[in-house]
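Reviewer comment 2.1 asked that we show a complete input and output for one of the modelled complexes. We chose the FE2/S2 (inorganic) cluster case, as it is the one discussed in the main text.
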Amino acid sequence: MTLVRFIGTDGTIREVTAQSGARLLEVAQADGQPLEGTCEGQMACSTCHVIVAAEDFAKLPPASEDEEDMLDLAAGATRTSRLACQILLGEQLEQLTVRIPGEVRNMQGR
Ligand code: FES
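Response of the prediction step:
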């Protein structure tokens, strides 16, 4: 189980526990977080962009080159940005804090 803490666009903090093996994107969507995840994990949209807390970022396996390329296109990306569809939660991760970026660039260009 991983304790996932979401910091919403308005600063609201929500905590959920996630099963080992769950994808962060699914956990976020199940909690009602506004992550579109348009491409359903194909690394073709960046609408699942989240900003990982600095203290948790190093605990995650590094992003692949494809993920880095998508993050380059994500609005408001930072040094600790990741694609939520690429983060698998597991036993090695007791807790994870991520911020939902305020600026989302989705497929409709809204
Ligand atoms: S859901 Fe499209 S890149 Fe993650």
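The chain has one domain: 2-99. We note this here for comparison with the apo prediction described in Section 3.2.
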